[in-house]
Design a protein that fits this description.
Blueprint (H helix, E strand, L loop, with lengths): L23 E8 L8 E4 L2 E4 L1 H16 L3 E8 L3 E8 L29 H20 L12 E5 L2 H13 L19 H4 L2
Antiparallel strand pairs: 1-5, 1-6, 2-3, 4-5
Helix pairs in contact: 1-2
Amino acid sequence: MVFGNGRHHRRSIRLKGYDYAQAGAYFVTVCTKNRACLFGDVVDGEMRSNEFGQIAEWTWQGLPNHVPAIVSDTFVIMPNHVHGIILICERDAVNVGAGSEPAPTEPACTTIGTHHGLPEIIRQFKTFSAKRINKIRETPGLPVWQRNYYEHIIRNEESLHRIRQYIVDNPARWAMDRENPLAFAPESEDAWRI
């Protein structure tokens, strides 16, 4: 998109008017820069992460230690992307749903603190993991991740369960995955978009 002064502006793919800091469950896909396969290989339907893949996974799993009021749900590292579910808790809530089993789309919080929105959470993940990866490969400042990410607001339990299964099954489908540069028959757009 080009505007008056010739500068390019990216069009937002986020849901207009939606507060991405509000409590809920979010499915996120983050791809590497130019879809480069940096994180390992899928062998016989199982992901085998290399050192960079382990850093990306460790950083993702560590997000709740650095970002108050989030829970990392189902997650998978793939050769050139990650899929994960992030649960954002109620602002300043402690033990939401105490006294009963909380629904996974309304996570129980054990932390009070500042409240970060999904864009800030993903920015932290990308920044922290890229710095660690670039330190090892001695390429400071080299982009590891693409500029944006795909997100989907999970609105009910049925969708949550379907997306969890999609994430778990992702390595087994790598040969046909649209993100796989060696795939022979990419999945249909509908299959990838949950």
